[in-house]
Amino acid sequence: MDTVRRMRLQTLREKIVQDVHVEYILDYLISKDVLSEDEMERIKGEKTRKDQTRHLLDILPKKNIDAFEHFVQALKGPYPWLSEQLEAEGPESYQIEEKSFFDSLLLGGLPQSPPHNVERKEKVEEVRQHLHSLKRGHYVVLHGMTGSGKSCLAAAALDNKQLVIEKFKGAVYWIGVGDINTERSGDLLCHMTDLMEKLSHHPEVELKRQVQSSTSINGARESLRRYFTSDALREGLLILDDVSSPEVIEAFDVGCKILVTTKDSWVMKSVEGRQCLVKVSEGFLEQESLCLMAKCVGVDISQLPPQAKKIHKLCKGVPMVIALIGAQLADNKDDVQRNPGRWNYYLDTLTRRDYGKIKRLSFSQEDGMLGAIGLCVDNLPDDMKCFYHDFALFVEDVNIRPEVLETLWSRNKYEVEDIMS
Q1: CB atoms near residue 253 (< 10 Å)
Q2: Domains of the chain in sequence order
Q3: GO cellular component annotations, sorted alphabetically (predicted)?
Q4: 39 burial class (0-12, 13-18, 19+ CB within 10 angstroms)?
Q5: Which of 67, 148, 168, 249 would bridge with 144, disulfide CB 3.0–4.6 Å?
Q6: Per-residue exposure over 327-346, b if at least 16 CB sit within 10 Å of its own CB, e if not
């Protein structure tokens, strides 16, 4: 049974316990295979009428959606006022769905939207369309360079009640993988154990389906497969954020629906043919950058100084850079509103490529631009780092053609294109 129907039963539980005599509806529920003979005998074995009804209400949420519909139908004859309330689509029903949606995001570990969020509407809608058509065992993959806003895009796409409740039955689980060391199996196993812990607390996962944590990758993979074949989780979605290794994909390839964010689409090589790639290459549009800066400063877009548009142009709309500058604007909001000189300071910083100053003041250096660039370079293989350092030979922002690098590196066109990619 999905979360919304389960919560409707929970909301009306006391009214149902007060009014219902189970002997009037048990035969109907047996005829529709909602209850087994053993379950019926256990219900009848309770000492009081109310305890019998409570026992029935404890069993129903563990059944499928059809069980809810049959229960409502069984109530229509003897208890029409209860069936009407269970079927109601009014404000109370809306509140139940809202609570169910929020609980799903909270229990699944989905990140909250940033305080000054700008939704990239077209891209968000594209991702949602792919998620709507996602099949079990298949992947939607958001890939693009560090700072392109993949994680925020994934979170924004899932901030949708209809998608989470109706498509994924309220079962969405976010695992922030990051740049783990796959040579140490314990790092990967830790993430798999974290997911199993979240799944085991799903209110509709039967106790017999709950499994213990495993001590090996293979054992954990089999345990996760068992979870995602349960009625409660069969349509669930797993989000693997910031995947940097194909070993992560292989470990979590358990037959469920999966959304991946990654810098490199090659990590998906083991599931080729079961993936839908969504390139996240475009930066913010000028209007989106201005909207974010205006929110951070607390003014209307029309009140932003001319420097704001120049900052967008110099940043090339890269979401992470705009967000970092926006965070500094927010940290100095009062001064920014009074003193136009601070806008010139950020403009000058970008013009001089002094990226060390572009970071969230309240965070460490690793959370700034240099930290992000360093992370990307450090993750390159040693031979690739040598190629990267060769770019110091060129003027900034020049368009380097493959033919130039063929000469510099003494390699053919196809090798050069692979290295550049």
Answers
A1: 17
A2: 3-88 (1.10.533.10), 101-279 (3.40.50.300), 286-357 (1.10.8.430), 380-420 (no CATH)
A3: cytosol
A4: middle
A5: 148
A6: bbbbebeeebeeeeebbeeb
Cα separations (Å) of 108 from 31, 144, 178, 232?
37, 24, 17, 14
Residues 175-229: tens digit of each pLDDT: 998 767 666 667 888 899 999 988 887 766 764 445 556 678 899 999 999 999 8
Half-sphere exposure of 166 (CA within 13 A, CB side): 8
The answer to whether the beta carbons of residues 378 and 413 sit under 8 Å apart is no
Which among 173, 149, 163, 166 has a CA at the least distance from the CA of 258?
A: 173
The gap between the terminal CA atoms of the chain, to the nearest Å, is: 47
* Planar angle of CA 114, 276, 167, nearest 5 degrees: 65
Edge-to-edge strand ranges of the sheet holding 139-143:
172-176, 237-243, 257-262, 139-143, 275-279
- Which amino acid is it at 167? K
pLDDT digits (tens, 9 = 90+) for 116-155: 777 788 889 999 999 999 999 999 999 988 778 899 899 9
- Residues 108 and 174: beta-carbon distance below 8 Å: yes
CA distances (Å), origin 357, targets 251, 309, 351, 368: 39, 20, 12, 8
Which contacts (CB < 8 Å, 24+ apart) does range 216-223 have? 216/185, 216/189, 217/185, 217/188, 217/189, 217/192, 217/251, 220/189, 220/192, 220/193, 220/196, 220/251, 221/192, 221/251, 221/252, 221/253, 221/254, 223/196
In whole angstroms, give the CA distance from residue 275 to residue 271.
7
Nearest to 229 by CA among 261, 250, 247, 206: 206
